[in-house]
Amino acid sequence: MRAGVRGVLPFAVLVLAWAALARSGWLPPVFLPPPAEVARTAGEMLADGSLWAHVGASLGRVALGLAVSVPLAVTAGVFVGLNRRLAPVLEPIAGFFNSLSGIAWLPLAITWFGLGWLSVTFILFNTIFFLVFFNTLVGVRTVPRILEQAVRTLGGRRRHLILQVLIPGALPSIVTGIRLGVGFGWRALIAAEMIATTTGLGYLIYDAANFHRTDTILVGIIAIGTLWLATDRLLLIPVERWTVERWGLVSRTGV
Amino acid sequence: MGWRAALATWAALLGGVLAAWSLAAATLPMPAYVLPPPTAVLEALVDLARKGILPTYVGESLRRIVQAALVAVAVGVPAGVLLGMSRRAAEFSYPLLSFFQSVSGIAWLPLMLIWFGFGERTILIAVNYTVLFPVVFNALLGVRSVPQIYVNALRTLGASRWRIAWAVLLPGALPSIATGVRLGLAYGWRALIAAEMLVGANGLGFMIFSAQPFHLTARIMLGMGIIGVLWTLLDYFFLRPLEDATIARWGLVQR
User: Fold this and answer.
1) Which B positions 185-204 lie with beta carbon below 8 A of chain A?
2) Percent of chain B at pLDDT exceeding 70
3) Of the candidates A96, A159, B14, B133, which lies 20 to 30 Å from B117 by C-alpha distance?
4) Among candidates B138, B129, B92, B137, which has minimal Cα distance to B242?
């Protein structure tokens, strides 16, 4: 309860300061609309469903990107990680594509797929795939060989080795990769939506700038920040912590 | 596997990819702009380098990111350490910082376009914003994670507040600060590319984005390659040494 108050108080102070600044008349309302007006715009956009449509479009794209890239990336990462000759060769290449992740793919995506959801999905795929692939690869390679040898000695097959040793052992690293992928992917998505689509939060705020609708832009910015914070705090960080505790190769005292 | 074998495998792989790419570009029934051959990318490199466009654009992009990095270190680290020194200030600013860190600079871009116009100022502010917040946030976290007993020890020995900040809090926070600098620059580099696409009149983001409507795909691929190589170099020669140095030297790792 006290933690909740502590978390809300700074935002309350920020909104008050914003209201005072907007009221002072120092900035024209076109530049900085008062919080009440932004709240009213948010209310209208929630009532007529337009905000939900944009939020749904953006979240749907991230979900599609995740659903396509994560299974492929984990499979590829495990199989390359198993190959001791190939793994050290492909690791720096995956690292290179990580550094390219996101928005740098946009011009090529538009050339290949035109404006639209396919280009955006392609960008998200590239961002998430290489980060998850890289982290799976690193995770598989850090599983101690002795665990692998133990399973082999006990008559385990390759299938057992993969499903019961390598994937669980690499899971903390895989989850870290997914968390990074969603983080970079979300930012790339907002930028890509500004250019390549006609729905989504990125489009909403960029289009609003053309009409000097700073109130709509602020609604969009607040939605973007809140959605990311909620996803990160309520989903990604708990899952990451849980996998690290459950499967991580963290030596605990007494174990 | 020794580095010689790794290098040989890597060269073979690169040769294979280039050969397959050339073959695909020569045989697939597609217009040349969809998949230009590797030689076209090389030609674009020579052409743009000779015209002086490439050195200028690379220089402009690098200038912007270096400037943002310097500001983040010069302003962000002291700000984070100062906020971290007081428990109250840290508790107050933590939710705000995590919110503003979650809204990438690109999401602010539409608002900044209205506030600061289409131009250099908007690009610089968006990039500085993106780099700054992770640095402040992680500096604060780093200071808060320094065990109180070290602070108490120095205080018992009669050290002043500034001495404690300089001799205990800052070194103790350095590994976390290094993490913040890496995250900030990673996000900032991508925000820079996106901002140059949307606003720019020069820079690597502008180079690949402005090539798209003219179907200068070789130029896009060249730009992407340079973006990836520059980040890899920055990572290898600056960020990793920084992390290794701070974590090995000051990290509170139990040895």
Assistant:
1) 186-187, 190-191, 193-194, 197-198
2) 96
3) B133
4) B138
The C-alpha of B129 sits at a distance from chain A's nearest C-alpha, in angstroms, of: 14
| B96·A9 Cβ contact <8 A | no
- Whether residue B96 lies within 8 A of chain A, CB to CB, comes out as yes
pLDDT digit string (tens) for A17-30?
999 999 888 888 88
Nearest-Cα distance to chain A for B156, in Å, is 31
Contact B94, B140 (CB under 8 A): yes
Domain B32-250: top CATH class: mainly alpha
* A2, A97, A103, best to mutate vs chain B, most B CBs in 10 Å: A103
Within the 118-147 window of chain B, which residues sit less than 8 Å (CB to CB) from chain A?
Answer: none
DSSP codes joined into one string, chain B: --HHHHHHHHHHHHHHHHHHHHHHHHHSSS-TTTS--HHHHHHHHHHHHHHTHHHHHHHHHHHHHHHHHHHIIIIIHHHHHHHHHSHHHHHHHHHHHHHHHHS-HHHHHHHHHHHH-SSHHHHHHHHHHHHHHHHHHHHHHHHHTS-HHHHHHHHHTT--HHHHIIIIIHHHHHHHHHHHHHHHHHHHHHHHHHHHHHH-SSSHHHHHHHHTTTT-HHHHHHHHHHHHHHHHHHIIIIIHHHHHHHHHHH-----
The verdict on B208 touching A (C-beta cutoff 8 Å) is yes
Nearest to B34 among A111, A202, A209 (CB): A111
B117 touches chain A (CB under 8 A): no
Nearest to B236 by CA among A100, A178, A92: A92
End-to-end CA distance of chain B: 29
Count of beta carbons in the 10 Å neighbourhood of residue B213: 10
Contacts of A184 in chain B (CB under 8 A): 186-187, 190
What distance in Å separates the CA atoms of residue A75 and residue A92, rounded to the nearest whole number?
A: 18
At A68-123, the pLDDT tens digits run 999 999 999 999 988 888 888 888 888 888 888 789 999 999 999 999 889 999 99
Q: Which CATH superfamily is domain A35-247 in?
A: MetI-like (1.10.3720.10)
Give this complex's ipTM. 0.87
* Measured CA distances, B113 to A217, B108, B126, B127 (Å): 11, 9, 10, 13
